[in-house]
Amino acid sequence: MSPGPEEDEVDPKAWMARITTDSAVRHGEPCIKGTRIPVSLIVGSIADGDRPEDLLAAYPSLTLEDVQAALSYAAEAAREAPLVPMAS
């Protein structure tokens, strides 16, 4: 039997079960499954200083796991995106 992730570890691909795209919902923008809440709204809100608790209060259908999934999705997208040189 191969060792699995520790109980307190987060599966880095767990976002795949929570993020979906559908051309009929927000023009195919990645959203939390079963909602019209785009990943970009969650990530942008966190980047602007909102806490996950703020998002959960503003969007009662969200869970903390949804917020984590959105951040994991964004991290993976950033790793896969081509590097754009920054102007100095």
Polypeptide structure, described:
The protein has 88 residues and is mostly helical. It has a single domain (14-78), classed as Winged helix-like DNA-binding domain superfamily/Winged helix DNA-binding domain (Arc Repressor Mutant, subunit A), CATH 1.10.10.10. The protein is built from three helices and two strands; from the N terminus they run ββααα. A two-stranded antiparallel ribbon has the order 1-2. Helix 1 (39-47) crosses helix 3 (64-80). The longest helix has 17 residues, at 64-80. It is globular. The chain starts with 18 loop residues before the first strand and ends in an 8-residue tail after the last helix. Residues 1-5 have low confidence and may be disordered.
Task: Walk me through the topology.
Layout: E1 19-20, E2 31-32, H1 39-47, H2 52-58, H3 64-80
CATH topology: Arc Repressor Mutant, subunit A
> Based on helices, strands and strand pairing, what is the structural class?
mainly alpha
Characterize the overall form. Answer: globular
Q: Which strand order do you get reading across the main beta sheet?
A: 1-2
What is the end-to-end distance?
52 Å
Helix content: 25-40%
Write down the Rg: 15 Å
Strand content: under 5%
Helix count equals: 3
Q: Architecture, CATH level 2?
A: Orthogonal Bundle
When the domains are counted, the total is 1
Tell me about the largest β-sheet.
2 strands, antiparallel
CATH superfamily: Winged helix-like DNA-binding domain superfamily/Winged helix DNA-binding domain
> Which H/E pattern describes the elements?
EEHHH
Query: Taking all residues together, what is the mean pLDDT?
Result: 86
User: How many distinct beta strands?
Assistant: 2
Question: So what's the CATH class?
Answer: Mainly Alpha
- Which regions have little confidence, pLDDT < 50, spanning 5+ residues? 1-5
